[in-house]
Design goal:
Elements: E1 8-10, H1 11-18, H2 22-32, E2 37-39, E3 42-46, H3 47-55, H4 86-94
Antiparallel strand pairs: 1-3, 2-3
Length: about 100
């Protein structure tokens, strides 16, 4: 492999190559064990390692790319019985049975 192909890539180069934002890459490093190396305050990447990691499916969110289901819910005040709003209906749809009255 020639020296140019095996060089260290910056986060901006990785983002441009894979069509994602810096935030996505930082999330992948933190939550999905993306192969990255910290050099001082900078992150550096080997393109071949990142490509293999992406091809393995490790970058995908659980559940076919959809957002994962919430694992915990917070107590949210709901309107009085008989009065609903779009927000309270959406909360109930996304977290059934976990929304309670707050005092």
């Amino acid at each position: 492999m020639n020296e140019m192909a095996d060089r260290w890539w910056s986060i901006n180069e990785i983002c441009k190559n894979h069509g994602v934002s810096n935030d996505s890459v930082y999330k992948w490093i933190d939550r999905h064990n993306m192969p990255a190396h910290r050099i001082g305050r900078l992150w550096k990447f080997k393109k071949s390692q990142v490509d293999a990691w992406v091809e393995s499916g490790a970058a995908a969110e659980p559940g076919s790319g959809a957002s994962p289901a919430p694992t915990s819910c917070i107590c949210v005040p709901l309107p009085r019985p008989g009065r609903t709003s779009k927000l309270s209906n959406r909360l109930l749809d996304n977290c059934p049975g976990a929304i309670t009255w707050c005092c």
